[in-house]
């Protein structure tokens, strides 16, 4: 999975394929985070071993 945020353009990729590209000028800056949720209170777990943030 790869997410690109350049200016007000956001792009979402999976396995090297562009899935979606949108323009949204709501936020001019912010923070990066990852979250996991589950349905009906069931247990969820996520592990990332190569999370990288780089400047464009």
Helical/strand content category: mainly beta
Any low-confidence stretches, pLDDT <50, length ≥5? none
Overall form:
extended
Give the amount of beta strand, in percent.
25-35%
The share of residues in helices is under 10%
- What is the rounded Rg? 14 Å
> Strand order, biggest sheet?
1-2-3
Number of strands: 3
Secondary-structure element series:
EEE
Distinct helical segment count: 0
Instruction: Report the end-to-end length measured between terminal Cα atoms.
Output: 16 Å
Give the mean pLDDT.
Answer: 86
Largest sheet: 3 strands, antiparallel
How is this structure best described in words?
There is one protein chain. With 56 residues, the protein is mainly β. The protein is built from no helices and three strands. It has strands at residues 2-6, 9-14, 17-23. It has a three-stranded antiparallel beta sheet with strand order 1-2-3, with no helix packed on it. A hairpin with a 2-residue loop joins strand 1 and strand 2. The mean pLDDT is 86.
């Amino acid at each position: 999975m790869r997410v690109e945020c350049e200016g007000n353009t956001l792009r979402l990729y999976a396995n090297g394929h562009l899935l979606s590209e949108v323009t949204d000028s709501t936020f001019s800056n912010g923070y990066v985070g990852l979250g996991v949720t589950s349905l009906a209170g069931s247990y969820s777990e996520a592990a990332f071993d190569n999370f990288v943030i780089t400047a464009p």
